[in-house]
Amino acid sequence: MSTVVEVMEKTTGAMSSAELAGEQHSRATVGDFTVADARMACREVEVWYGPKKAINGVSLDIGKNEVLSMIGPSGCGKSTFLRCLNRMNDTIDGCRVTGSILLDGQDIYDKSLDPVPLRARVGMVFQKPNPFPKSIYENVAYGPKIHGLTNNRAELDALVESSLRKAGLWDEVKDRLDQAGTGLSGGQQQRLCIARTIAVSPEVILMDEPCSALDPIATAIVEELIDELRSQYSIAIVTHSMQQAARVSQRTAYFHLGDLIEIGETNDIFTSPKHRLTEDYITGRFG
Ligand SMILES: Nc1ncnc2c1ncn2[C@@H]1O[C@H](COP(=O)(O)OP(=O)(O)OP(=O)(O)O)[C@@H](O)[C@H]1O
Ligand SMILES: [Mg+2]
């Protein structure tokens, strides 16, 4: 995979300013936003905070077994869009979502759909690790308990262990499961939060800058984990690190002021972006 420096040297194919001028009105996304095996399908999604529109008619698929990265300057709407995907925006006063978002063909904004089980199917890992003020064991066991996923203590123990193993944390915590989750290092806490998300068998995992509070070693561990998790889950990750997007994702979406400007294979986005705004961002001229 190319480094950002190589990318800067190789970048070609930007649109002309005339093309750009036309685009400002059409808001058409450059690149194919559909995939053959969509897990989630978003169409013409708009998000409003009171009278202010933060997402401007975004259409985007998230495929099975893929990592999709979402990049773009601060305030362009990455977190807002990510939160639409499991209805976390419902918890924000004055926030309104229009358009359609399907998960396995089912409209997640359907009035009859309960957002609580939805948030188990579409789990979320936040920028700052946020373990519950409970033991390591309870952090992972909590979700399966409230969703009634196991029948007895032995099953729950096995689920806690397998989730911690998948998150690459088991060996580091197996002898201190009764200790506080908040007593772990930042990188361990983030893996604990990933174990907690995995424990309820999600289909999709949303990650909002999951490594921004981690050192390079913990970041490398989490990135390796993301790559392993792809075999079982669909993952959408917001990142400000273009190196990280290049390392972990197969497709990349570039957002700008609430618009999805460009989407494509990660390698193509970083080596031959088609839209001037994408090029400006990845070459460091913007944001
Ligand atoms: N709870 C909120 N109430 C009102 N406006 C909000 C709220 N959250 C976000 N916004 C606005 O929506 C727009 C998009 O914000 P968002 O947090 O989604 O951006 P972002 O791309 O995640 O930025 P960053 O990279 O800084 O995290 C911004 O203009 C922001 O001010
Ligand atoms: Mg954000």
TrEMBL record:
Enzyme Commission code(s) on record: 3.6.3.27
GO terms for biological process, alphabetical: phosphate ion transmembrane transport
Domain ABC transporter, first and last residues per copy: 40-282
Gene3D superfamilies: P-loop containing nucleotide triphosphate hydrolases
Keywords noted in UniProt: ATP-binding, Hydrolase, Nucleotide-binding, Phosphate transport, Transport
Domain of life: Bacteria
Record-level Gene Ontology MF annotations: ATP binding; ATP hydrolysis activity; phosphate transmembrane transporter activity
Pfam families the record matches: ABC_tran (PF00005)
PROSITE patterns: ABC_TRANSPORTER_1 (PS00211), ABC_TRANSPORTER_2 (PS50893)
GO-annotated cellular components: membrane
Keyword Signal: no
Broadest EC class assigned to this enzyme: hydrolase
Name this polypeptide is given: Phosphate ABC transporter, ATPase subunit
Source organism of the structure: Thiorhodococcus drewsii AZ1
Lineage: Bacteria, Pseudomonadati, Pseudomonadota, Gammaproteobacteria, Chromatiales
